[in-house]
Prior knowledge:
By secondary structure, this protein is an alpha+beta fold. It has helices at about 25-30, 50-60, 80-85, 85-90, 125-135, 200-220; strands spanning about 15-20, 35-45, 105, 110-115, 155-165, 170-180, 180-190.
Amino acid sequence: MFVVHRFGIGTAAGQASTSGLRPGTKEADMGTSTDFVGHIDINPPLNEAEIVYLTAFSQSRRCRRPGGPYVVPGNPMAETLDDLGMDSYNAVAERQPALRCGWLPCWDGCCLAHDDLEGPFEPTPWLRYLIAHFLKPGAVASRAGDDQFRDFTFDHHLEGMVVGCRRADKELFAVVVADNRVRERILRPADRRYVDRPRLAYELAIDRRNARRRRRDQAKASPTLRSV
């Protein structure tokens, strides 16, 4: 069966993802970004409640909030530092891997892919977290007694592969999921000779595509002035 995976506005598998980085790490030192391709299948597909929550979860800053680590804001894309306060804004939520999740469900709920938004470089820990807390049978949130999960089914099985290439050092790695178990495999080791080198052809193509999309989104968001 042929399935078209439809992702929300501002997201797409295979586009560049700029990392929000921890000081002192290899990625922080190199100012890395990563290009991802591929997706993780979800069976059975997510229902509407699960799609809505996981989308808001991924698009919101995963910082400490009153109410605990599962809280999501009403409008994740409009939230600012002023809304959260400096201390909360820079503190990672309890037991979550980083301040950005990066894994986003498609509109049909049949897969996850890594988005192209700015965020920490923690794809493997985050995917393990989502499966363990929200998706697999017996997931942690199923025992939380939280009303926002009342329509979750907690019966999903994930399979698939996403491949990432770190731009700074060209390390090629795969995030592989088999029956809800996640592992990361290095396909090509990092090579520091590539640090500070010009972008490759596919990187330029991705960046041009992203720039065109941003201009379109800005044009749609800006009011059109007409003479009367």
